[in-house]
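Researcher: If only I could read backbone structure tokens as easily as an amino acid sequence. Walk me, if you will, through where the backbone shape changes along the chain. I have put the entry right below:
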Amino acid sequence: MSAFMDIPEVRSFILHWGEMGTQWGVNRSVAQMHALLYLSDRPLPAEEICTRLGLARSNVSNGLKELQSYRIIRRVHVEGDRRDHFVADTDLWDMLMKIAAERKRREIDPTIQLLGELAESLDGRTQLPPHIHERIGRMHEFLGTLTNWYDDVRRLPRPTLVALMKLGGRIARFIPGGKTKPSADTD
């Protein structure tokens, strides 16, 4: 068990994944649990996750629930062991799509709903500054457009999505008037 955690690159990856998680609004311990499971070559029981990461059992239990809600880890059973074990999804594309879908569901969808309600409640209210209605309406429209784009992109077959991503900004040449803007860094 300890040989795995004795590898400096493993420890570095787990620590960095935890730090990166905090930048994305994910609890450090949760991100470290994900990193550990991602690197593990076998399912791990919660007790082993506690030991390897030095975390309290309650922290690990809550973190495992959080990761399962994102559908990037799953509970499995190991023959001859009554404990629940956990494995991470190692398909990076699937993981990315699951995380994006869950973040959209938790963060973007409620925001779009609220902005729509706010825009509707502002309709016809002439006593308020007009820029308030205009800016809330623009934000609602922008997030709606972004969501529609996301829905279209996530339905693309994986090879098409990979090709699209590899094209990067060069895709603009296929769009009328779609020249890429120079980067701010290239002055």
